[in-house]
Design a protein that fits this description.
The protein is of the alpha/beta class and 274 residues long. It contains 9 helices and 14 strands.
Length: 274
């Protein structure tokens, strides 16, 4: 099987410093954590940014500062979020897509449907999905298709028929969000089996499911996303001291199952990045 692409989700839009003191917020903190994740075996980071007071932001200026700091320290790939936080407009969510030159992201997310998100609703009506897909296409930024439910695969295939998405594509199966598809092995096998030929996939399972599903993905030939955005704990009652500790656990899981870790260069090839 191909090497495992480990993606580290460092920041997110929901986690607070009250929940964990290890959440990186400033550009310097994000840069240090990205470097630590690269050293632990990650090939890519999934990037959100925050205002200095911790509020989620899609500011191109804040993304630029974080990306500069990451690239000053390490060669890890950078995937920016266009999901942002619940309630943001399309223009807000697409803030980081405007970046170019040394601050241009390697990849960006594209969520292809609306889903319950705890007590909130992560709203992605079809016109909005197509607007973000157009912006990604126009900027020639490769999307990662974020799927919180099975229908989001079908919507991605519809986008491909409309010329807004190239196949094969890369998918991220987000499992275990309250109100969305549960984290079960049956669900992951079903989703992976629905993909067109040559597509690649990653699993991002929430909370206590994170590491067990990373192990399952490795066994199935997929890839793994781990980090504080999705899970705060290294073990029950034991906070991870950063996403790098979770990446190190995935490295152990991959080694035990005979799969090497992808370097950023190998990940670029496997994910068909420009």
């Amino acid at each position: 099987m191909d090497p495992v692409v480990v993606t580290a989700c460092l920041v997110g839009a929901e986690i607070t410093r009250e929940q964990t003191p290890y959440l990186p917020i400033s550009a310097e903190e994000i840069g240090r954590e990205a470097e630590a994740c690269r050293n632990a075996g990650a090939a890519m980071i999934h990037l959100h940014v925050r205002e200095p007071d911790g509020r989620p932001s899609q500011s191109a200026t804040l993304f630029a500062a974080a990306i500069r700091e990451v690239r000053r320290r390490t060669d890890i790939l950078i995937q920016v979020s266009t999901g942002g936080a619940v309630g943001m407009t399309a223009d807000e969510r697409c803030g980081p897509l405007s970046l170019d030159g040394p601050e241009r992201p390697d990849m960006a997310t594209l969520t292809t449907g609306t889903v319950n998100f705890g007590d909130d609703v992560f709203l992605n009506p079809r016109p909005l999905v197509r607007e973000i897909a157009r912006r990604l296409r126009d900027r020639r930024i490769v999307p990662e298709i974020e799927c919180f439910d099975a229908a989001m695969i079908d919507e991605a295939l519809a986008l491909a028929k409309e010329g807004l998405l190239d196949l094969p594509a890369h998918f991220d199966f987000v499992l275990g969000v309250p109100g969305a598809l549960a984290a079960t092995p049956e669900a992951l096998r079903f989703l992976a089996g629905r993909l067109p030929e040559a597509c690649t996939w990653t699993v991002a399972a929430m909370g206590r499911h994170e590491l067990p599903f990373a192990a399952l993905a490795i066994e199935m030939g997929g890839n793994a996303r781990v980090g504080l955005e999705d899970n705060l704990y290294l073990a029950k009652g034991r906070l991870a001291k950063g996403s790098h500790e979770l990446c190190a656990e995935v490295a152990k899981l991959a080694t035990a199952r005979g799969r090497p870790l992808a370097t950023p260069g190998e990940a670029r090839r496997l994910l068909r990045l420009h």
